[in-house]
Amino acid sequence: MFIISNTPLQNSTAEGEFWLLSDDSARTIRQPDGSLLLFEGNLYPDSPVTTADLAQQFAAGRPAQRLAEAKGQYSGAHLDPAGGTVHAFNDHLGVHDVFIRQSGDSFALGNDLGALLRALPTTADELDETAVEDYFALEFALGGRTFARSVRRASPAALITAEARGGAPRAERYWQWQHEPAVEGFDDAVDAMYELLLGATRRIAALGSAPERWCLGLSGGLDSRVVGALARTAGLRPHGYFFGERESDAGSVTGQLATALGIEVRFPGRNREFPAHFATSLDRFPMANLEWCKYVTGRDRLPDYDALLSGRRAELFLRGTAQYFRSGFPERATPEDFYDAFAGTSADEGHRKPVCARLEAELRDVPGSSLRKRRHLGQLRMHSSWKDCALFRDFAGRPHYSPFDDLDVISYGLRLPPEWQRGARFHRALLERHFPHVAESRIRRDEVGNNDNKPLERWLSGNEDFLRAVRECVPDPAEPVPGERSLGSYEETARRISEGRHSRNEIHYFFRRLTVAGFRKAYL
Predict the structure, then answer these.
(1) Which tens digit of pLDDT belongs to each residue from 253-283?
(2) If DSSP codes are grouped into helix, strand and coil, which group holds residue 290?
(3) 205 CB contacts (<8 Å, ≥6 apart)?
(4) The CATH number of 186-272+299-319+381-449 is which of 3.60.20.10, 3.40.50.1970, 3.30.470.20, 3.40.50.620?
(5) Which CATH architecture has domain 2-173?
(6) Mean confidence (pLDDT) of the chain
(7) Are 89 and 67 a contacting pair, CB within 8 Å?
């Protein structure tokens, strides 16, 4: 973690006209001229750029080209106390975040939203209602907004420059997607994607952890089959775990999948404990949906591990989602069409018009087809929301990796014709061709009733820990839950949920509202 500000921070170190706050996760390289590079994350072993290269290029005033050539997942900052200038940056895909806080002539740049808000406290009137509207409609906030009005999330591939004596930080992108022509030849493309994914997995495996010190969430779905098979091919022996119900269809398939992969899978079965993680989630990932705490339950009972593996981002490029392939989606889509495609069950209809106006502004400069615009929104959702899901995060601070987060994989995936992705055709062909031992022809998964593996209502039924966590999470448990659903107070709604008197959609809606209320109490 690092935060650099032009105003004093508690427990910070003065560096010229700046104040620096950091922990051991951020490596520091100090140059002979007194400047220093803070770097958190990893450059891949085959990256043509090292952290020493970056430090030298920042000192020479030419960082953009070397950042564009770097390969890895990282965030960092370069501080020049003598020149009164600071730069902050993140990786091409925004796997690591950078946040900008601006208030008058005061600013702060950091890579941890919670730490930034704790270092520079805000007030109740700082809640960004626009970000909240977007969050309920789309699951993420447009324009880099956060729930705090003075804080923005930088884009992927961001290079931000700020000067100690004030003025708004200036953000630019050191790299942009280059949309190349669609690939041809289905079978050749399947083979090419296999090689790219295997190369990405080997890069991850080379980061240093022993083969058996990885954790892999297994669901029996296509993504976990591909990642599990890639991990084994790359020489890893991850600990498999399934967070849902052992007796569900998905649990049975997961057991078969683990056997086929030659790894052990554990079924911790501790899902009723997930409210115990609310406070940690708000502390580490302040805008992450508190419902996602269900995914982390039981990991503390696994053998010790160093990092997580998953198939994050696969749905954007290999098998598509309903947002991309919904039947009848017009080629010349309007903002309302995109709203209908992306709006979730938590959307309040009264917010449709302003959210559509912001969607129109967001998509105005995205060239090309509706498919490209839908993919752009999918990328935004991943950058701003989904990556904070506990499927892809570790509350103990361990890193997470996915072969689908690899730049070469995504660049090639963007060239796959959309019709190849319908019905997960390309995804299934990849399995049948290169990993037949875990393909659906060998291990079938019945999609009927598949959601039985995560019976949220049952986990919350009679759950006193849930009621206690809600009371501790919100500013006032007697406060009415806002929105169009007329749920009553937080206390009353939680009690009715525990008594089985709310539908699953209403429970999802409540957790979104609870997340915002938790953020208000923790930070505003």
Answers:
(1) 999 999 999 999 999 988 999 999 999 999 9
(2) helix
(3) 211, 231, 234, 235, 236
(4) 3.40.50.620
(5) 4-Layer Sandwich (3.60)
(6) 91
(7) yes
